[in-house]
Amino acid sequence: MTKMITEPERTIPVLGEVDVLVAGAGVAGVAAAVAAARVGAKTMLVERMGFLGGVAAAALMTSTTNFMFTGDGRQVVKGIAEEVLDKLAERGATSPDWRTRALPQFPFDQEAFRVVLIEMIQDAGVETLVETWISDVIKEGNVLKGVVIESKSGRQAILSKVCVDATGDADLAARAGAPCRDTPPDSGSLLFQMRNVDLDKTVAYFEEHPEEWQQYCDRVTPLEDFIANWRERGIFHLPHGGGRNMRLVQDAIARGEYIREKGLCKDLDVFGMFAYRESGAVLINSCNFRIDHLDIRTHSQAELEARRLVPLTAEFLRTHMPGFENAIVSETAPMVGVRYTRWIDAGFDLTAQHVSEGARFDDVIGVETAFADHPKGGVLHPPRTHDIPYRIMLPQNVENLIVASGKSVSTNPRGLIRGQVSCYVLGQAGGVAAAVAARNGTTARDVNIREVQRELLRQNVCLGEPDRLAQLGLA
Ligand SMILES: Cc1cc2nc3c(=O)[nH]c(=O)nc-3n(C[C@H](O)[C@H](O)[C@H](O)COP(=O)(O)OP(=O)(O)OC[C@H]3O[C@@H](n4cnc5c(N)ncnc54)[C@H](O)[C@@H]3O)c2cc1C
Are 56 and 80 in contact (CB under 8 A)? Predict the structure, then answer.
């Protein structure tokens, strides 16, 4: 049994009192804070890292999967997700031609991304604390009243009418005693970037060796699309898992010139790669952990092991992958990217069936496209969309808390809508709902959903086609 001690009761200073407190500044948290402030709420954002963006910046996952277009080419996600991509494109940090379903991914320059998020937060008037951990919640009965933070200023409290949990691990929900699910092993990866890569040469290698191209892996991408996306749009995406089927990789492993796994670090041969030409950097995603990332000892061991393996993977690429001969590791991610850990049980799950059937919900707070399985492997965009319902963001047994990360909303399977696009959509909705609840003095659970939907429409969020909006009384 774990040895326990009892902490003494403490009186701590209140740093601030706000309408909406957003915990965690990944893409969901940033979207939540910007959206809440745009409704007029006094909003504070708290982040443990020294910059914003979460997995998309701190874990270097600098590419957004295209869940914005249907298979027949309609753009169905707008709002803050679209704003971020437009701002990146304006400053040459992603392709100006990103508005197409032909692109499986929108890779972007991470430094520009960090600045774009800061500008959006500041333009909206959000007070932001960085390098600040949220270590506990403050409750009266089952009503959440704020959070306890730890920083170089010590231990302090922030009181808030409504809180948005965008920590990605449902930290606030768990601390508040809401029912959560947590079924490790969880999936995480340590990503890194390389520069001095000649991607023209890499693309030419696949053109000359079409048998090496893994069309039915990840998002189905014919070789000609892969080549055109690079040459015409400057976007490079080697599907995650593709390396596993490449002769170049597997022959090297068979000859003992590379390894598939070491210690806790698995799948060193999956080789997902992402690049936007102007950024000059190639993102390498080639390791997986299958561990409990909430067990800090195991997580620490995995992260340190993976950091030691980055030079090995880089050397493999330099010696075997055409175009990488002079490449250098320019950056390793400041933290491991964790795909999911704990997620809430809201008493209702968005399921894979809802997604594949294009389910509609009266409490829709956003729509997005999903992928349909291709018979030969990989996935494709079908022409339809599905709704995301507000109810999956509301933890049970605690009031005035909205969970906004796609990693931890109530879905079955877990992480069903964890892509960056979904996280922007959920974040924007969570922020608007929190601000409306705070403004009207209702709980987040009892918030007037039509008022939330109207605010979302004002913020350029798509909630469906005109006939659907008319059905909901929103036309
Ligand atoms: C390896 C990997 C590959 C992926 N590939 C893709 C891809 O190709 N395309 C795609 O679209 N998506 C991809 N994803 C998913 C996507 O990037 C994430 O799900 C999404 O970015 C999560 O955003 P978020 O804001 O919900 O959560 P996070 O990005 O996890 O943000 C949570 C934030 O909260 C902060 N935080 C956490 N706890 C605390 C605390 N207690 N106190 C203060 N701050 C706290 C964290 O520092 C972080 O900034 C990938 C994810 C991973 C890990």
Answer: no
Show the tokens assigned to 373.
């399985």
To 10 degrees, what angle do helices 420-440 and 79-90 make?
Answer: 120
Ligand 1 centroid to Cα of residue 441, in Å, is 31
For the chain, the C-alpha Rg in angstroms (whole number) is 22
Residue type, 292: D
Q: What is the average per-residue pLDDT within 159-188?
A: 97
Q: Which atom of ligand 1 is nearest to the CA of 171?
A: 41
The domains located in the chain, with CATH, are: 14-182+342-471 (3.50.50.60), 186-338 (no CATH)
With a cut of 80, say whether residue 82 has pLDDT above it: yes
Residue 287 CB coordination number (10 Å): 27
- How many other C-beta atoms are found inside a 10 Å radius of the C-beta of residue 317? 26
Question: Under DSSP, is residue 380 helix (H, G, I), strand (E, B) or coil?
Answer: strand
Centre of ligand 1 from the C-alpha of residue 254, in Å:
35
CB-defined site of ligand 1, < 6 Å = 23-29, 46-49, 54-56, 58-59, 61, 63-65, 133-134, 166-169, 171, 189, 285, 337-339, 405-407, 418-420, 423
pLDDT tens per residue across span 239-295: 988 888 899 999 999 999 999 999 999 999 999 999 999 999 999 999 999 999 999
Q: Kindly report the protein residue whose alpha carbon is nearest to atom 30 of ligand 1.
A: 168
What pLDDT, on the 0 to 100 scale, is given for residue 260?
Answer: 97
Look-up: residue for tokens 């659970």? 445
